[in-house]
Write a structure and sequence with these properties.
This protein is of the alpha/beta class. The protein has helices at residues 69-83, 95-108, 130-142, 157-170, 186-199, 215-218, 238-248, 262-275, 289-302; strands at 6-7, 12-27, 32-44, 50-55, 85-86, 117-121, 123-125, 147-151, 175-179, 203-205, 226-228, 252-255, 279-282, 307-308, 324-327, 330-333. The chain has nine helices and 16 strands.
């Protein structure tokens, strides 16, 4: 779907900054988020037809610097206008711009499959008190989610270990996925992974910071399947992506198009993983409805029936209206 050139002579791109507000503060291992700055990309052709995309940074995660981001995004749009197209390898080092522009062009050129899109989701459990997190897991189980994913690194490890142990006891039929967001130190990794596995965790995501030199040596000794997320972000070329998978040999990769090369990069990551027998899952990165509906369309086309890590579209009080519909555990676009 994404390896052809997106051509549109006479193309004009408009960038609109928006500030979206979370329904409740979202705590991560790095930040507590209360609002989100995003940029809506409108693509217009010479006949006045329009398409929409979204570009935004994820604080502490995105490769693009925060300073001068809006100006760099405008410059990328002007470059694509001058070319009249978005070539497959353009903007590899500016993934959020790539994602927003290519989604706007896909929408404008009506290149998405026409049938309705849907995906089964995992239930993301945001950090909070142990009681709040267990209550959210209980709700997720009652709603039919098959995978519960929760953040590690925001609470003391002993509390998180108790939380995993209790979740495994209460929900033995569900898959428990823990995302450390690089919060562990190399010396902690093996004993913590062993403790988490004994407590009942099934998957451990990104336990060390990206590019930790110890990672390759430690991975084979870990008792848990490992998923990589932030580890993917610095790798822009196809050769670098394939080298990473060959060197670390993860069990799964977590693809975030806004961070990992846009939809073209997501396609490249997915194909490289499949060629090596590596599982993959797509995750959103706090996008608004505009970005989320594009992700849903791509996932529904690329991996129908797979469980994905997309948002539910219910993060913000002032999100943009779209035909997205959340009926747990599925997200629909009609």
């Amino acid at each position: 779907m994404m390896r052809h050139r997106l051509r549109c002579p006479g193309l004009r791109l408009h960038v609109q900054r928006r500030v979206l507000h979370f329904r409740a503060p979202k705590r991560t291992s790095l930040h507590t988020l209360r609002e989100r700055v995003t940029y809506i990309i409108t693509a217009r052709d010479s006949e006045g037809r329009m398409g929409y995309g979204e570009s935004c940074r994820m604080p502490g995660r995105s490769p693009e610097p925060e300073a001068g981001y809006a100006e760099a995004l405008e410059a990328a749009c002007r470059r694509v206008e001058a070319q009249g197209e978005l070539p497959p390898d353009d903007l590899r080092d500016f993934p959020s711009a790539r994602f927003g522009i290519e989604c706007a062009l896909m929408d404008l050129l009506k290149l998405w499959p026409k049938e309705p899109a849907q995906a089964e989701l995992h239930r993301l459990i945001w950090p909070g008190t142990a009681e709040d997190m267990l209550a959210a897991m209980e709700q997720g189980a009652q709603q039919g989610f098959r995978v519960l994913k929760f953040k590690l690194g925001a609470l003391p490890f002993a509390e998180e270990l108790d939380l995993v142990r209790e979740a495994a006891r209460r929900f033995p039929h569900l898959t428990l996925h823990g995302d450390a967001n690089g919060a562990f130190l190399p010396a902690e990794l093996l004993p913590r992974a062993e403790a988490l596995a004994e407590a009942g965790l099934h998957w451990l995501e990104q336990p060390l910071p990206p590019r930790s030199p110890e990672f390759a040596a430690l991975l084979p000794a870990l008792p848990l399947p490992i998923a990589l997320d932030e580890e993917l972000t610095p790798h822009c070329s196809r050769a670098a992506r394939e080298q990473l998978l060959d060197e670390l040999k993860p069990d799964m990769i977590i693809i975030k198009p806004m961070l990992h090369g846009g939809l073209a990069g997501a396609e490249e990551w997915a194909a490289a993983a499949e060629a090596r027998g590596t599982a993959w899952r797509a995750n959103s990165a706090l996008e608004s409805h505009i970005g989320l509906q594009a992700l849903l369309r791509w996932c529904a086309h690329r991996a129908p029936g797979a469980i994905q890590g997309l948002g539910t579209g219910q993060l913000y009080t002032d999100d943009l209206p779209t035909p997205l519909r959340f009926c747990p555990p599925h997200l629909f676009l009609t």
